[in-house]
Amino acid sequence: MTQFSTDSQRRTDVCVLGGGIVGLAVALGLQRNGLSVTILDEGDIALRASRGNFGLVWVQGKGDTLPEYAAISRLSAKLWANHALRLKEATGIDIQLQQRGGLFLCLSEQELSQRHAMLTRMQKTAAGDYPFKTLDLQQLREFIPEAGPEVAGATWGPEDGHLNPLFYLRAMTEQFLQRGGTIDNSGKVSKIEPTDSGFTLSSDSGQWHGDQIVLAAGLGNRDLAPHVGLSAPLVPNRGQVLICERVKPFLNYPTGHVRQTNEGTLQLGDSKEDVGFDSGTTSDIIAKIAHRASQMFPLLRDVRLIRAWGALRVMTPDGYPLYEASQQYPGAYLVTCHSGVTLGALHEGPIADWIANDRTELPLEVFNAKRFTL
Amino acid sequence: MPNALPFKRLPTNKAEWVTVYIEGQPVKVRQGDSAAAAVLAAGLQPSRTTVVSGSGRAPYCLMGVCFECLLQIDGVENVQGCMTPAREGMQIMSQKQARQLNNSKPSDLKPTDLKNSHIKNEDTAV
Amino acid sequence: MNTPEYDLVIIGAGPAGMSAATTASSHGLKVAILDEQAAPGGQIYRSISSPAIANESILGADYYHGRTLLSAMRYAKVDYFPSSSVWTVSPELLISFSKAGKSSQIKAKKLLIATGAQERPVPFLGWTLPGVMSCGAAQILLKSSGLIPSGPLVLAGSGPLLLLIAAQLNRAGVEIEAILDTTPKGRYLKSLRHLPAALRNLPLLLKGVGLLIELKRAGVRYINNAAQLKALPDDTGLLTKLQFKTGEATDTFNCKTLLVHQGVVPNVQLTRALQLEHQWDELQQCWKPTLDSWGESSQAGIFVAGDSSGIAGARAAEYMGELTARRIAQQLDKLSQETLLLKTAKTGRLLQQQQAIRPFLDALYQPADEFLKPSDETLVCRCEEVTAGQIRSMVAQGCTGPNQTKAFSRAGMGPCQGRLCGLTVAQIIANERQVTVSEVGYYQIRTPIKPLTIGELADLAE
Ligand SMILES: Cc1cc2nc3c(=O)[nH]c(=O)nc-3n(C[C@H](O)[C@H](O)[C@H](O)COP(=O)(O)OP(=O)(O)OC[C@H]3O[C@@H](n4cnc5c(N)ncnc54)[C@H](O)[C@@H]3O)c2cc1C
Ligand code: FES
User: Fold this and answer.
1) Is residue C343 included in any domain, yes or no?
2) Of A57, C176, C286, C340, which is most buried by a Cβ count within 10 Å?
């Protein structure tokens, strides 16, 4: 991909390690700040949460125990329309962002009242500024008649939405290249050396030099962070996603477990199961997902499953993101999170600005890794 | 409606013959024929249109590989015709683009449009 | 619910699977054999338990040889599951399959994958038009239904099966407008160095020549060096003409049916989904699982035999099935190492004789470049309608492999799960990047390898 020879050291203002949705969004934001950016990424097959995710821009219930997380998630959701619009203007790719609200269906009264209580708590913490509604089955059916008899009800978040994650990845890649960025697809980084003028990176394809670096390598950050005096105690967390045949639209809103894409494909998720670096699927888990989805929407029983995959979530012990600048080696930043789609607009916006200008108004202190050692 | 030239049949060994309905028209086929073979024997081409551009297709491999033989069989859409044996009385229709799950259009209603009577957190501003 | 457990589960009841089942049960193994077809036989012996055509001379003696395998399996003690599509196998050898809209599971001590071959995708302009079919499809219609394609009929492609099917149709009295042989000039010369080895299987070699003579005698037009195929539609969108070139000259035939063929390739869906090790076969231009000499894969306990282990034909498949079954019996302590060697010596020699002809055939019938790396406007992914040009432009954007182009374009995401585009997409990427196909790799194949309904899957959770 790169025009330079592999032996000479290649230079750039910022090297972003990782070309998934997090790395690309940050890279775009850095370019917007006038910086030259190179993305180093792995080849065709790698552990990629960006390609395996569910495409939700999801706010409701996020940050239950950390109000700052609730706040940045909602901020990102607000910035999303503009982010999507600019991608479309630059590349012509419509990433199919829809933010008309989202539903979380519950299969028991107990689950529903727990959820109601949680959201009410969050509303209190946010001094009332936290919109949601709790619906019983009858109300839910008024606008989703397909909801099954075993559904107890649902919670509704007006700020929730979804998009096509693969189009998102593609649009960002195109805009990044248009702006003169370089992606090294055989650039798996094995070593980072801080130098007087920045950082030297050793990758499969040779050496790179960046004045600044951003670690956005998902689970790969765990090994990379210690090279620059940071720590990223990440644990892989497998989510399994089921993809069904395309059907004509029947579901206008994403739900936490079932969504329909613009092309008509139905996606069913998701499970929280801790596994190692294995992106396979297990028939008992996908059977459970199918079972739950067909309780929620009995008409899904008839729909054919085309493929299922496991993708590894990038999880910190508490599930919240890591945003941290290295104290020991200024110029090195760590950006990693589980909900890269939801936080995409934040990454392209305020997070990239923070890295470009070394200051921010965001309450980022709460997101550094010291919280795990205290 | 069957429109293309039908595939002809050679003299065959004795077997039962069954009547299937292709786009409503009765057609006699041999026990052991697949639904895809029945469609070819009746001359129904294309037997499906694609989800992406709506272009016409017909059975291509007859061994379960290509999924070009998707048909609507006995009311169920997207059935792989070449893997489905023909049965007496079977209703076979061409598959038109994406499958339809229900007859209603997805609603654009939001909870905010509902009468608020049952909503638990009525005080919430949305 | 108790999951039934078998010593050996075989997936695929073609020659490899049937002979393995019979052999394994003769050693006292508890055997199950599953096949998605309604009757045993695999692709070559399709419908052998009740052949459709009355006149047996049309398909020829090779087809009816299947009866021997069939009756042997009938007398053996084997649990045969027809109409059963295996959709996933866990690493612990729990096999999930779908039958009549319901899924069940069985457990295996050893697994034999004998899922056979599929025809190689043959992308060219217009290959998606109604009226264009694979040669194999026409043969299946003959075997199971006695149906013959509507004319005018043209056959185009390369490989022994093309000639066989042409001869069978001709014997059935079908009028063939022409056979277009797309084998590139010069292939005959290139394959000559493999000829001496091929002579070890003289009967098969002569059979091929015999078919050619048979077709020439029947007066079928045979056109060599045909290239740049283009199928053209009438105003209702059905095939009406085939345009092609020989040398500089462009020619067309009227046709209502066009049968195409470029050889067969192993069906790797299951072996890929199980993440077994695979290797690229340069001569056959396809992927095959890496196996030891007994057919055992990179994962102990999982064996592959027949065409899904590499293309070698029906007789070879039969021999491989037998050898593998004996090896499995030996691993399960049903016979000693010495008896194994003794019992397999003769079949081993027969197998080698069958395999001896392959390098010659493979070199001769390697598909022409235009089918491996089609022109920009040609659709490569039929399901999601992605062209070769779109794949090329994604490579220009930095995509290095088929999984990236899949994510960007949906090529490979449709219902066929990449079966009809996987090889082509990888070839195009390799060619654009000027690297080997082996470096480019293949799709990550996902469960389920055959679609099943959500309801069926959900019922497994109860
Ligand atoms: C269309 C076609 C036509 C051919 N015609 C001829 C011919 O006329 N003469 C000739 O000499 N050779 C022919 N060949 C080649 C010949 O079929 C093979 O050499 C031979 O059949 C290989 O035997 P096998 O047992 O390995 O596979 P097959 O005979 O292909 O048997 C494999 C079986 O596995 C089953 N199967 C696959 N996946 C699954 C699954 N997931 N679950 C359950 N079952 C599954 C299939 O239904 C099939 O019955 C043909 C090949 C093809 C593809
Ligand atoms: S015709 Fe190819 S799958 Fe049925």
Assistant:
1) no
2) A57
Is C20 part of any domain?
A: yes
Same domain assignment for residues C132 and C258: yes
Homologous superfamily (CATH) for A7-53+166-234+318-372: FAD/NAD(P)-binding domain (3.50.50.60)
Structure-derived torsion over alpha carbons of residues A350, A356, A358, A361, reported in degrees to the nearest 10:
-20
Chain B residues touching chain C at CB-CB below 8 Å: 3-13, 15, 29-30, 32-34, 37, 40-41, 43, 45-47, 50, 52-53, 55-68, 70, 78, 83, 85
Cβ of C408 within 8 Å of Cβ of A283? The answer is no
* Chain A residues near residue C448 by CB distance under 8 angstroms: 305-308
Residue whose structure tokens are 């009995």: A298
DSSP state of C40: S
Is C144 part of any domain? yes
- Chain B residues with CB under 8 Å of A135 CB are 111, 118-119
Q: Which of A44, A278, A306 is the best residue to mutate to test the C interface, defined by the most C CB atoms within 10 Å of its own CB?
A: A44
Average pLDDT in the C193-204 region?
A: 85
Name which of C401, C451, C462 is nearest A306 (Cβ-Cβ). Answer: C451
- Name the neighbours of A, counting chains with at least 3 Cβ pairs within 8 A: B, C
Residue A119 is which amino acid? L
Q: Is the CB of C152 under 6 A from ligand 1?
A: no
pLDDT at C1: 61
- Full-model pTM: 0.90
Render C108-162 in DSSP notation, one character per residue. EEEEEE---EEEPP---BTTTSTTEEEHHHHHHHHHHH-EE--SSEEEEEESHHH
Cross-chain residue pair B56–C148, CB shorter than 8 Å? no
Q: How far is A165 from chain C (nearest CA, A)?
A: 9
Q: Is residue C461 part of a domain?
A: no
- Report strand pairing: C102-113 vs C302-304: parallel
Q: How many structural domains does chain C have?
A: 3
As a CATH number, domain A235-315 is 3.30.9.10
- Which residues in chain B have their CB less than 8 angstroms from residue A250's CB? 101-102, 104, 106
Closest CA in chain C for residue A289: C458
> Same domain for C143 and C238?
yes
Alpha-carbon Rg for chain B in angstroms: 21
Domain of residue C291 covers: 5-118+265-335
Report the CATH number at residue C390: 1.10.10.1100
Q: What φ, ψ does residue A325 adopt, rounded to 5°?
A: -100, 140
> Of all helices (H) and strands (E), which one includes residue C79?
strand C78-81
Q: Which residue has 């025009």 as its token pair?
A: A3
Residue C148 and residue C46 share a domain: no
Category of C87 on φ-ψ map: left (φ > 0), alpha (ψ -120 to 50) or beta: alpha
Alpha-carbon span C8 to C73, nearest angstrom? 15
Closest CA to A333 of A321, A323, A343: A323
Kindly state the percentage of chain B with pLDDT values over 70.
83
Which residues in chain C have their CB less than 8 angstroms from residue A308's CB? 446-448
Domain layout of chain A by residue ranges? 7-53+166-234+318-372, 102-158, 235-315
Subunits next to B (3 or more Cβ pairs <8 Å) are A, C
Place of tokens 């529903």: A112
Residues C224, C127 within the same domain: yes
Q: Going by CATH, does the domain composed of B17-100 fall within 3.10.20.440?
A: yes
Q: Is A158 within 8 Å of B126 when comparing Cβ atoms?
A: yes
Q: Are residues C135 and C217 in the same domain?
A: yes
Q: What is the ipTM of this complex?
A: 0.94
Q: E strands within chain A?
A: 10-17, 37-40, 56-57, 102-106, 133-136, 153-157, 161-162, 182-184, 189-195, 198-203, 206-215, 235-246, 258-260, 265-268, 304-315, 322-325, 332-336
Question: pLDDT per residue over C308-354, tens digit each?
Answer: 999 999 999 999 999 999 999 999 999 999 999 999 999 999 999 99
